[in-house]
Design a protein that fits this description.
It is built from 14 helices and 20 strands. Strand 17 and strand 18 form a beta hairpin. The longest helix is centred in the C-terminal third of the chain and has 24 residues.
């Protein structure tokens, strides 16, 4: 049987989709990138923003035509949106065979077994192509309850996975050829399992496996400790990049968001990080148009971006999410103003990123090569900046030295160093 997976959302969703794919491969199914050829179609959904839900419903709308032509096609909807929109999905799209929310994603095998024969095959015969980069989930759920965020409601309370299981998973991945892992959690800084915190987990992975690069996300400013900063500075396996969502630089808006820190506290944390790790790249998330955000509030955020000089920004227009506290607030910022503010924010961010990248001109940096296309390799340096250079496909999965020759806003071009 052939299967197709459409994934909408964050790296956590990507990781869940990978696990579903591995399960299906191990049980005799074959992947296809053409939905019309599939016997099994899985839609993995996100509900953090309205646009993600719209994409999911649009996909299901298009899928209806394929289902009518191929009535024995199995359709499953899983993930965050499936958690709370179960009834609406079943009502609007009666052809969906089953809906499985994010809290129960591990039960996929039980649900799909009602439709396919799940006699296990040999996974070694299936996985012929090496994969050098993998996501590893270290915790599920969240209990910060930021007022705009639906994640705690659809993924449940925070649960840290067993630290030894995580170390073992990384060790197994390394033995299959993986060179880099990204540890995932809604707030990795609050990881805690059997007396092991996040810093100690990083130490165990570093010392007990042969992994070359370790990345992680996402960090919450209220929980990022000095111990973690010190470990990143001292540990050569940990990449020098921190994604640290600020969301706003207005204390009034931060309080409404229930972020549990002030802007001054956030800026002080950035100063601590940079004083210990001068070459760190700090990226962030920012929401514009949160209920009650004035021009003055937005100007504070814009000024903070200019002062802190993030390496990159993921900017979003606020959209109300059902069940959240902010859903009760009046969405009083027009769509047009949200678009204008986001455009200004991203334009400023791109200028800063390009200036930062220009400081790399002539420098030799290490790149772990991820892809090859039309005689061009690409990968990321320790600071998580994408770098392109001409070379050969044989370099995929290898760490090489390159000299930066041309910076752009979000990437750089380089030449292979001898």
């Amino acid at each position: 049987m052939k299967f197709f997976i459409e994934t909408i959302g964050c790296q956590m969703n990507v990781n869940d989709s990978e696990k579903i794919a591995v399960f299906l491969l191990e049980h005799g199914c074959v992947f296809t990138d053409k939905v019309e050829e599939a016997d099994i179609v899985i839609l993995n959904t996100c509900s953090v923003r309205f646009s993600a839900e719209h994409k999911a419903y649009s996909f299901l709308g298009r899928l209806k035509e394929h289902k009518e032509k191929k009535q024995d096609m199995i359709v499953a909807v899983v993930g965050c949106m499936a958690q709370y929109a179960y009834k609406e999905i079943k009502q609007r799209f009666g052809f969906v065979n089953f809906v499985l929310g994010a809290k129960r994603i591990d039960e996929f095998s039980k649900y799909i077994s009602k439709y396919i024969d799940i006699k296990k095959t040999n996974p070694i015969e299936i996985n012929k192509d090496k994969q050098f980069f993998k996501f590893v989930t270290i915790m599920r759920g969240c209990q910060n309850y930021c007022s705009y965020c639906i994640v705690p409601y659809v993924r449940g309370p925070e649960i840290s996975l067993d630290y030894q299981d995580i170390v073992n998973e990384v060790d197994v991945l390394v033995k299959t050829g993986v060179k880099e892992v990204t540890l995932l959690g809604q707030n990795v800084n609050s990881y805690s399992n059997r007396g092991v915190n996040f810093t100690q987990l990083l130490q165990k992975i570093s010392s007990q496996t042969e992994i070359e690069n370790i990345r992680f996300m996402t960090n919450h400013p209220k929980d990022l400790s000095q111990d973690l900063i010190d470990e990143i500075a001292a540990n050569s396996k940990i990449c020098k990049h921190i994604h640290l969502p600020m969301q706003s630089a207005s204390d009034n808006i931060l309080e409404k968001m229930n972020r549990k820190y002030t802007y001054n506290q956030y800026e002080g944390l950035v100063d601590k990080i940079r004083s210990k790790i001068p070459d760190i790249n700090i990226t962030t998330d920012i929401i514009v148009g949160f209920p009650g955000e004035t021009d003055a509030d937005f100007e504070k955020t814009l000024n903070a971006v200019r002062k802190i000089r993030f390496g990159g920004i993921f900017g979003f227009k606020y959209s109300p999410r059902p069940k959240t506290v902010a859903y009760q607030l009046e969405d009083d910022i027009s769509t047009e103003i949200k678009k204008q503010r986001l455009a200004v924010l991203l334009e400023e961010s791109n200028l800063i990123s390009k200036e930062i990248n220009e400081s790399y001109i002539g420098k030799i940096v290490d790149v772990l090569v991820e892809n090859y296309n039309n005689k061009v390799c690409d990968g990321r340096n320790s600071q998580n900046i994408k770098i392109f250079f001409e070379s050969e496909k044989s370099l995929i999965g290898k760490k090489v030295k390159v000299t930066v020759v041309k910076p752009l806003a979000n990437s750089m071009f380089a030449e292979l160093s001898i």
